[in-house]
Amino acid sequence: MEQYVIKGGNPLVGEVEIGGAKNAALAILAAGIMTDDTVVIENIPDVKDINVLIQAIEGIGAKVDRRDRHTVAINGANIDALNVDNEYIKKIRASYYLLGALLGKYKKASVPLPGGCNIGSRPIDQHLKGFRALGADVKIEHGYVIAEAKSLKGSHIYLDVVTVGATINIMMAASLAQGNTIIENAAKEPHVVDAANFLNSMGANIKGAGTDVIRIKGVQSLHRTEYSIIPDQIEAGTFMFAAAATKGDVTVKNVIPKHLEATTAKLIEIGCEVEEFDDAVRVVSSKGLHHTHVKTLPYPGFPTDMQPQIAVALALSSGTSIVTESIFENRFKYVDELARMGANIKVEGNTAIINGVERFTGAHVNAPDLRAGAALVIAGLAAEGITVVDDVHYVERGYECFEEKLKSLGAQMEKVSGEKEIQKFRLKIG
Ligand code: EPZ
């Protein structure tokens, strides 16, 4: 099992290039099979979740040509299986995007019901509600979601919950339905917009993505495209909070500042200086941080995927802060790990009450999930002494070259596995 060993105390200083958005790329890769032409997708992040989904796409018979780490060509003409293998969905929930893509194109799909994960139960009832509204017969048998339709007809769908996954999945299926579909109470995340733009570049007719009402006019078929994924606002925000927590000065490059507005607003609130450029944002944290309140909300609110990262910065701020997690029911599992580093946080239901402390001290901690793992790395970078973060495979699901990028900003850390390598690191850094 691989770990990060970190010697904390160095402010992070410098510039870091942000990669393509994982959560946009997962949806867009799935949508790429909806034509018999070849689609070329650029700026995909080279992370585990992406690579697993590409394997799943190959697994159903699509032709995949990985041109380089960040570019893939997909041709869905010879797809010969409409059921996605369980091993893929077990590894990544986002395989469920193949449901909407296969149902839209072939009017039939079967995908294992994605399990819950460490941050909550993660139901897909709204996805199924949308498919049924489009005329599909959807049943759950032996752990599989089986969706089938003679034809798909446009419908007026009102989502009971603002859900990124269901918004995108329904948008995909509706793109090749007959007639018009309206999705009300749609998610507005940048990756929903990116998925809509990708589908439109293939000849779909989608309007309103980025608002809470999306209108889709079904088309007969979709065609080839070349498309580049938007930058990852969550990767960018993670480095921005790492700058804040380590009293650093970091510029995140190749970003869309508009997508970072909620993150930027909170960084300013807690005492950082933030400077925006066309495709970069600079975060300087020279004074002490101070407390604030934050509630995670669907976009454009403060993103749930940034909740563990801001909590680490608040745990090192003066005063008492309140973090409310309104999207997932179990996204505070990192709090016990942070307590081992000296954090003073009390979780009551979906709220964390954070009493800031002067400093963290290094400890041996476990990453409970992807974003919490990244947050624990930030804590280790800010802590005095040595921190070991276990289970970094979680972090590598969503962050490409995480330790290399942090080391380029001055972090003293290595990826290791086992006590011997940890001792070697300790000796090396003295
Ligand atoms: C996407 O998950 C992201 N994953 C998550 O990022 C992100 O946290 C989440 O959106 C919210 O922004 C991908 O894009 C692959 P949802 P998704 O459907 O689509 C409830 C990361 O760290 N809900 O927007 O699964 C659900 O329980 C990951 O990169 C239903 O009730 O999230 C949750 O409370 C973690 N029924 C809320 O909606 C449904 O049918 C939002 O979920 C679907 C969702």
Description:
It is a single chain. With 430 residues, this protein is of the alpha+beta class. It folds into two domains: 3-19 and 231-429, Alpha-beta prism (UDP-n-acetylglucosamine1-carboxyvinyl-transferase, Chain), CATH 3.65.10; 22-228, UDP-n-acetylglucosamine1-carboxyvinyl-transferase, Chain, CATH 3.65.10.10. Helix content is 33%, strand content 25%. The longest helix has 13 residues, at 233-245. The chain is globular, with a radius of gyration of 22 Å. It starts with a strand and ends with a helix. Bound molecules: ligand EPZ.
List the helices and strands and how they pair.
Elements: E1 3-7, E2 13-17, H1 22-31, E3 38-42, H2 48-59, E4 63-68, E5 71-75, H3 86-91, H4 97-106, E6 108-112, H5 125-133, E7 137-141, E8 144-148, E9 156-158, H6 164-175, E10 180-184, H7 190-201, E11 205-207, E12 213-217, E13 225-228, H8 233-245, E14 249-253, H9 261-269, E15 273-276, E16 280-284, E17 293-295, H10 307-315, E18 320-324, H11 334-339, E19 344-348, E20 351-355, E21 364-366, H12 370-382, E22 386-390, H13 393-396, H14 402-408, E23 412-416, H15 419-429
Parallel strand pairs: 2-14, 3-13, 9-10, 17-18, 21-22
Antiparallel strand pairs: 1-22, 1-23, 3-5, 4-5, 6-8, 7-8, 10-12, 11-12, 14-16, 15-16, 18-20, 19-20
Helix pairs in contact: 1-2, 1-4, 1-7, 4-6, 5-6, 6-7, 8-10, 8-12, 10-12
The structure holds ligand EPZ.
